[in-house]
Amino acid sequence: MLNYPVRAFRPEATETDRFATVATKRTPLPTLPVMGMQIVDAGTETTVGHLLDATQTQQVFFMNAHCANIRAKNEDYANAVSRADVILPDGLGIDLAARLSGHKLTENLNGTDFTPTLLREAARRGLSVFLMGGKPGTAEAAADKLCLSIPGLRIAGTMNGYEDAADETVAVARINDSGADILLVALGVPLQELWLTRNRHRLAPRLQLAVGALLDFLAGNVKRAPVLVRKARCEWLWRLAMEPRRMAHRYLVGNATFMARAAGAAMASRTPEVTPIRRAMDFTFSLAGLTLLTPLFLLVALAIKLDSRGPVFFSQIRVGKDGRGFRMMKFRSMYIDAAERRAALLASSDRGGICFKSRNDPRITRVGRLLRRSSLDELPQIINVLMGQMSLVGPRPALPEEVAAYPSAALERLSVRPGLTGLWQVSGRADICFDKMVDMDIAFARSRSVLPYLLLLTLTFRVVVSGRGAY
After folding, report:
1. What is the SS3 assignment for 21-73?
2. What is the mean pLDDT of the segment spanning 305-312?
3. How many CB atoms lie within 10 A of CB 335?
4. Residues sharing a CB contact under 8 Å with residue 276, sequence separation 6 or more, in sequence order
5. Residue 155 and residue 128 in contact, taking contact as beta carbons nearer than 8 Å
6. Which residues pair with 40 in a beta bridge?
7. Burial, 175: exposed, middle or buried (Cβ in 10 Å; 0-12, 13-18, 19+)?
8. Which residues of 223-244 are buried (b: 16+ CB within 10 A; e: fewer)?
9. Which of 25, 76, 110, 291 has the least C-beta neighbours within 10 A?
10. Which pLDDT value is given to residue 335?
């Protein structure tokens, strides 16, 4: 193990940098009300400067979807959260919950990224940190990693979360004797928050953070998601893939439960905007669907490959909300030269108006005809829904050349996200003419309630089973 710098004196911070201006005024951190909690609404630099400049004890908790679910069921944890000095937003779930109430948080301050940034500024100020938690050896390994990645960081001491923490009086005395300015406690939710709340009056470090799995990540016990996955805010999907048995209930059942609670809290606090509620339901339902239908995806992919030459998926630029283009995904149901043959078939369209649709389209493969009849070719659009390019319910996304030929009245279709299903699907699908389809889509776009969304989603299952209007 590395030799940690010995605590001696705290040098005065003389250089001016991006954090220095934050510390000149002790104004409270801005917050937003989310699900009955005051969540910090500030960037990393502002928050770090505020916490390190504090002269009184500050207990900092991170709040994510999993924590919110525990808070709803565990009264002791809920009380601990209510007593925290600072609650930081951690993850996509809290951001979505804020949007349901009509707010937008400034930044995602997840503990795994935020805490090392805080420690870098702490090192510059000459402050020391004590690491508590994890299995024997984890805190020490994390300390080694921090010393290598943050030059000058002073480690006051380490302690595991098992034998070392068994006697709370001894553990508190050991932390206080170390002279640490900052305490990181990684015992897992809700044990770490309960431990900090219970011992607040006895702990000397003026900044105390409950950091969850941070020490395990630093020690290499748990591998973090690639940077691109983290930037897409899908790190939970990575953890689900790495530990499916342990994480399945937390993320699949837990995320759906959280979004239901978030929607309920938003409705109770104000008259919520329908758009963020629909988006929350899109995210929850598409995530569950993508997970449950993975075996079916694989079977369809195999059938396509065995039936005809070409890729499994077909993607095409379609026009989405506000006229923005996106690449829509489908299972390939046509031969690979279908685009070149389309012009010759326009005269045989079975749908009146602009949008082309042919009952006996010769470009469709044998497997493709079955996929279209059962609507299985549309399943990959669940990914488009998850990415926010589409909704589960809304007008079907049109081709750019179709939109270019729209009459002015039809452009209102573009005021909402395009959907996997909609009014025309449950009313006859391909048997509906263009003008009637537009009227239906505009009626949905003007709806200010989530009830049509839920009703159409339910009716779609009946239509898919019957195969009405599908070809």
Report:
1. HHHHCCCCCCEEEECCEEEECCCHHHHHHHHHHCCCCEEEEEECHHHHHHHHH
2. 92
3. 16
4. 96, 99, 100, 102, 266
5. yes
6. 31
7. buried
8. ebbeeeebeeebbbbbbbeeee
9. 25
10. 87
pTM listed for this prediction: 0.61
Q: Is the dihedral of CA 340, 342, 347, 353 positive or negative?
A: negative
Residues 6+ apart with CB under 8 A from 283: 96, 259, 385, 386
In the chain, what are the domain boundaries?
20-219, 275-466
Q: Which residues make Cβ contacts (< 8 Å) with residue 351, sequence separation at least 6?
A: 357, 430, 432, 433, 434
**Lookup result for tokens 């995904």:** 329
Distances in Å between the Cα of 435 and the Cα atoms of 319, 352, 402, 431, 432 are 18, 8, 13, 12, 8
Report yes or no: 248 and 66 within 8 Å, Cβ to Cβ: no
Judging by beta carbons within 10 Å of its beta carbon (0-12, 13-18, 19+), is residue 345 exposed, middle or buried?
middle
* Separation of alpha carbons 296 and 303, rounded Å: 11
Strand, helix or coil for residue 131: strand
| Rounded Cα gap, residues 361 and 334, in angstroms | 9
Average pLDDT of the chain, as a whole number: 84
Which of 304, 302, 306 shows the shortest CA–CA distance to 314? 304
- On whether the CB atoms of residues 115 and 132 are closer than 8 A, the answer is no
DSSP conformational letter for 4: P
Handedness of CA 228, 230, 233, 237 (dihedral sign): positive
Count of Cβ atoms closer than 10 Å to residue 415 Cβ:
15
Q: For residue 39, what are the β-bridge partners?
A: 32
Q: Are 141 and 115 in contact (CB under 8 A)?
A: no
- Taking the alpha carbons of 87, 108, 190, 164 in that order, is the dihedral positive or negative? negative
Predicted pLDDT at 4: 46
Yes or no: say if 122 and 181 are a contact pair by the CB < 8 Å rule. yes
Rank 29-43, 365-379, 434-448, 453-467 by mean pLDDT and report only the highest.
29-43
Q: Exposed, middle or buried, 340 (CB in 10 Å: 0-12/13-18/19+)?
A: exposed
Q: What is the distance in angstroms between the CA of the first residue and the CA of the last residue of the chain?
A: 67
pLDDT at 13: 40
CA–CA gap between residue 171 and residue 133 (Å, rounded): 11
